[in-house]
Design brief:
Elements: H1 8-44, H2 50-82, E1 89-91, H3 93-108, E2 113-118, E3 123-126, H4 128-145, E4 151-159, E5 163-170, H5 192-197, H6 204-214, E6 218-224, E7 228-235, E8 240-241, H7 246-251
Parallel strand pairs: 2-4
Antiparallel strand pairs: 1-3, 3-8, 4-5, 5-7, 6-7
Helix pairs in contact: 1-2, 2-6, 3-4, 4-6
């Protein structure tokens, strides 16, 4: 008897696992090497100079922050993948957008012109913590990759039949078309050196993709080199709680008592 088994999918998953472990190891190796190097140097000194030690503290702190961000993002991805369903609630997206605009201005440090455009009071059925995480990743990416003097816009607007869109626009360097389909892959970077210099972990858009999938939403990316990019989270009508205006509420039939 001859038994044939298609192991294509098994091989693909195993290759993804190997790549993931290799990428995590690579991302952790550099900051750990920097910290260990400093510690070994100070350990070899018979009488470490306190002033010299303090001079290197900011760099060691920067590298430990990098490790912390990476571990936090890995834990977030693990949680999103292990929990089958999201815990739904009513999410006040206009208020969330205002909060993110304030945080954007803080992260920018007056280096960018930040604008907020809330064109609807509609809310969403979803998980507020997860949506905040996804939207905050889009906003922080815009701050990281937009040169000083550029513009960043945060939008909440209707689109299509009952759909709503949370979008972040920027006037950054833009992304070449061949990179766009791979942006949500873990650790995929258009410019690896520049991403590290700006503090990115390479997991932000992967988190965005998982959160949106759990909300039956999709990520749309439009970008033009030397002009900027738009990252838009598009939510289906079944996730949207439309605003009930006072007139509409007054006209709505009431149950008999």
């Amino acid at each position: 008897m001859l038994l044939a088994r298609d192991i294509t999918e098994l091989a693909r998953v195993e290759a993804m696992r190997r790549d993931f472990v290799a990428n995590v190891s690579h991302e952790l190796r550099t900051p750990i090497t920097v910290i260990v190097g400093f510690l070994e140097a100070f350990d070899d000194m018979p009488a470490p100079d306190p002033a010299e030690f303090r001079r290197h503290i900011p760099l060691m702190r920067e590298q430990t922050d990098r490790i912390r961000r990476l571990v936090d993002d890995l834990l977030t991805l693990a949680r999103l993948e292990s929990e089958p369903d999201t815990k739904d609630e009513t999410v006040d997206v206009p208020a969330l957008a205002r909060r993110l605009a304030e945080e954007c201005e803080t992260m920018s440090g007056a280096r960018h012109q930040v604008s907020l455009h809330v064109d609807s009071s509609a809310r969403l059925i979803g998980n507020s913590q997860e949506l905040y995480s996804a939207f905050a990743n889009l906003v922080s990416n815009a701050v990281r990759y937009t040169p000083a003097g550029g513009r960043i816009g945060i939008h909440w607007r209707p689109e299509g039949p009952g759909e709503m869109v949370f979008a972040v626009t920027d006037t950054g360097e833009g992304i070449e078309p061949q990179h766009i389909p791979r942006l949500t892959e873990r650790f995929y970077r258009v410019d690896r050196g520049r991403s590290r210099a700006t503090g990115g972990t390479g997991l932000g858009l992967a988190i965005v993709k998982h959160v949106l999938q759990r909300h039956q939403a999709r990520l749309r990316v439009d970008s033009t080199l030397a002009k900027g990019s738009t990252f838009a989270a598009v939510f289906p009508a079944e996730r949207v709680i439309p605003l009930v205006t006072p007139v509409a509420a007054a006209a709505a039939p009431r149950n008999a008592t």
